[in-house]
Amino acid sequence: MPIPLLLVGAAVAAGAFGVKKGVDAHSDMKEAEAINREARQIYDAAKDRVDAAREQTNCQLEAHGRLKAEVLASEMKQFEALAQQASRWNTQDEFFTKEDMFRLKNETMSAADMLAGGAAAMGGGALAGMAALGSAAVLGTASTGTAIAGLSGVAATNATLAWLGGGSLAAGGMGMAGGAAVLGGIIAGPLLAAGGMFLAAKAEESLDNARDNRRKAKDAAEKLSALVGNLKAVDQASVKFQAAITKLRPTFQDQLTQLRDLLAVSGFDGPMGPREKQILSATSRLAKVMKIYLDTPLMSSNGEYLSHCEQALEEANRLLEKLARGVGDDTAGFDAQPVF
User: Fold this and answer.
1) Nearest-CA neighbor of 60 among 130, 149, 138, 157?
2) Greatest CA span in the chain, whole angstroms?
3) Which region among 13-22, 103-112, 322-331 has the lowest average model confidence (pLDDT)?
4) Cβ contacts of residue 70 below 8 Å, gap of 6+?
5) How far is 231 from 333, CA to CA, in rounded Å?
6) Tens digit of pLDDT for each residue in 297-314?
7) What region does 63 belong to: left with phi over 0, alpha with psi -120 to 50, or beta?
8) Phi, psi of 307 (to 5 degrees)
9) Hey, CA dihedral for 201, 206, 211, 212, is it positive or negative?
10) Which of 96, 141, 143, 163 has its Cβ near the most Cβ atoms within 10 Å?
11) Are 160 and 181 within 8 A, CB to CB?
12) 339 part of a folded domain
C-alpha cells in the first residue's frame, strides 16, 4: 500500500529540520569555541602582565629592603652609638626621644643580625617586607632575634608579600591568607587561581556560556589591569626612596665622622658650645631624614599603594633644604643638598 504523500512530506520536512538543527548546533559550537578562545586569550594576556609587574616589583622591593638593612646596620647604628655618647652633655635630642633611641637600637641590632644571617635570614619575602611595610613596622616591635622571627612571620602570613615573592594563590601556599588575598584592594584569589578556573570548563558546549565567559574574562582583565597599576606605583615609589637613601648616605656619613671626631676630643666638662650644638643638631636632623626614608611604608598590609609616601619624601626634602639654608641658630653653615 502506497505511503500517503502527506506522511512522506512530513518525514522529509522533519528530516530537513533535523539537518538544519544539526548544522545550527555545529555552527554554534564553532562560534562558542572561537569566543571561548578569545576569552582565554584576554585573561591570559592580563595575567601575564600581572606576573611581569609582580616580578619587577618584588625585585625592586628586595633591593630596597636590603639597602634599608645596610643603612640601619651601618649609619643608623653609628648614629645611635654616637648619640648615646653625646647624651653625657645632658641635652635632649631635638628629634629623637629616649624611647625613639631605644627602638632604634633594637632595629639596628636586628638589621645587623639579619645581614649576618645571609640568605636564610633575608629570604621568604623578609627584605620585600621591610621595603613595603617600613623598617620600624617590622623591626621596631620586638627585641633583636625575636624581630627577625617576626619579620619572617609577616612575610609568610601576609598574602601580598607571599604572592609578590612568587607564592601561588592556587596552590594554597600563603598560610592563613589563602586564596582570599586582597591585592591592591582587589579580591585577587579567584582571579588568579588555577589559571582562570572561574571560566566555565565546558563553555564550548553552549554559546551563551561562551559569551558569559568572555564577559567574565573582560571583567577580570579590567581588575587585573588596576592591580598592575598598583604594582607599578609601588615600584616607582621604591625607586625614588632608594635613590634618596643612596644620595643621602655620603652626606650622612661625613656628618657622622664630624660628630665622632668632636666626641673624641670633648671632655664633656661643661655645656655645649656653638660648634658642638651645630654638629650634633645637623647630625640628628640628617638621621631624622634618613629615618623617614626607612620607616615610610609604600603599601598597606593588603597590598594597596599608599600615596602619602610621596608626602614623606617632600617632608624630608624640606628638612634638608632648611639645613642647606642654615635655618636656625644651631645649623648655620651646614652644607647639605636636597636628595631628590
Assistant:
1) 130
2) 135
3) 13-22
4) 111, 115
5) 42
6) 998 877 889 999 999 988
7) alpha
8) -65, -20
9) negative
10) 163
11) yes
12) no
CB 164 within 8 A of CB 99: no
62's enclosing H/E stretch is helix 5-71
Q: Can you spell out the DSSP letters for 7-27?
A: HHHHHHHHHHHHHHHHHHHHH
The domain in which residue 72 lies consists of 28-325
- Total domains present in the chain: 1
The amino acid that residue 2 corresponds to is: P
Q: How many residues does the chain have?
A: 340
CB atoms within 10 A of CB 293: 23
Place of cell 506522511: 7
Mean pLDDT computed over 235-251: 95
**Grid cell digits, residue 120:** 636564610
pTM of the model: 0.77
Question: Is residue 2 situated within a structural domain?
Answer: no
What DSSP designation does 91 have? Answer: -
Amino acid at 137: A
In the block, cell 639579619 appears at 114
Any domain includes 334: no
Cell of 245: 637613601
| CB neighbour class for 245 (10 Å; exposed up to 12, middle 13-18, buried from 19) | buried
Instruction: Please name the residue that has the C-alpha cell 582583565.
Output: 221
